[in-house]
Amino acid sequence: MKKTISILLVCMLLFALAVPSFAAAGINTYEQKLITYVQTKYKTEEGIITVPKAYINAAENVCNVIDLTEAQYTEIVAILDKAYAYVLENKLDEMKDLKGNIAVQDVLLDYADDALAVIGYTLTADRANKLLIIKDPDGKVVAELKPAIIVQTGADNTAIAVVSAIAVLTVAAALGVKSFRKEDDEA
Amino acid sequence: MLCGYLIIYTAFLPVAKPLASVYRLAFTGNTSSLGLNTDNINSIFFGSTGRKGGDIKVSEIEYPTWGDHFGNIKVENTKIDAPLIFGDSVSLLNKGACVSLYGGIPGYGKTVMVSAHNNTFFRDLQKSGEIGALVNIETNYGSYVYRIIEKKIAHREDPSPYTEYIERDDSENNEFLIMYTCQKENGISLSKYRCYAFCEYVSGPIIDKYN
Question: How far is B22 from chain A (nearest CA, A)?
Answer without folding.
Answer: 9
